[in-house]
Amino acid sequence: MPACGGAARPTWLRSRVIWVVGKGGVGKSTVATLLARHLAARGEDVLLVRLADRGLCAPLPAAPGVREIAVDGRSALDEYLAGVLPAALHGLVLRSELYRRFVAVAPGLEELLALGKIYDAARRGSERVVVDAPATGHGLATLRMPREVLQTFGESLVTREARRLDAELTARATTSVCVVTQPRALVVSETLELVEGLRALGLWPACLLINGCHDAPAGIATLLGAAPKASGLLAEALAAGRRRVALVTHEHAARRTLAAALPQLPALELPFAGAGRLDESAWLALDEVLDGALDGALGGALDELPARDTVP
């Protein structure tokens, strides 16, 4: 296997922290898992962070070199207090009604501490950090939190931490952002809004990963169009083929919309891997596709990707 730091590898893959963001349901957790496995298979020690505010997470099959943790703001805050308060006082604080009310109204404190825990792990350890972010709205709110804190609070320990986190989030050598999408019109619309929101925060997406792509054999649309009328199983097969070509045509249109809006953003494609839990062979197959894309065999700007077969 080639080393991840090889010359062919994109620079964003060498960042200390890689955020995987996108609309809920596009396979973001699967992509985060895949990236973590990909880095680990190439000799990296990897910390995969699942941020809270999610329902089902893609389960991570056992992979050497990958350590997975779940991080939520409340736990991060409790952990911080455990480090600065005596044990007896810490328990009293956590059980107090005043503390619960404070946490409920303190703007962004939990999100800020969740971010702090992620970047503290990146600073202190030797692991590369892959972050499976919450879905679009909450994900952007989490990434925006350091700036919100800086605008809300006066100079203090909290604002100093927020300033440091904002600097680390916007430093490309430290942080890169991989935007996951699918080739569907509604998803594309939300993806474009997400990219705009990231750029407004000074976070420049480094990669657009188009997940769940379908394909059709070259020339199949022409063959189906010329097929005679049929019945029985042949008719069902022809109808299934036409549905597949229609799906690919719609996906092609979505990709062109992305290309027009984000022509300079490097794009990678992953095939549709089926519904439900992925087995080890499926993970390995996806890793092979990702490896080829990262080496440049399939990657590039969206307008450089080959056109797919479409209905005449």
Give the SSE map.
Layout: E1 17-22, H1 28-41, E2 46-51, E3 66-71, H2 73-84, H3 87-95, H4 97-105, H5 109-124, E4 128-132, H6 136-152, H7 157-170, E5 175-181, H8 185-200, E6 207-213, H9 220-226, H10 232-261, E7 266-271, H11 280-294, E8 300-301
Parallel strand pairs: 1-4, 1-5, 2-3, 2-4, 5-6, 6-7
Antiparallel strand pairs: 7-8
Helix pairs in contact: 1-11, 2-5, 5-6, 5-7, 6-7, 6-8
What is the 3D shape?
A: elongated
Strand content: 5-15%
Mean pLDDT, nearest integer? 78
Cα distance, first to last residue? Answer: 42 Å
CATH superfamily: P-loop containing nucleotide triphosphate hydrolases
Quick summary of this structure?
The protein contains eleven helices and eight strands. With about 300 residues, it is of the alpha/beta class.
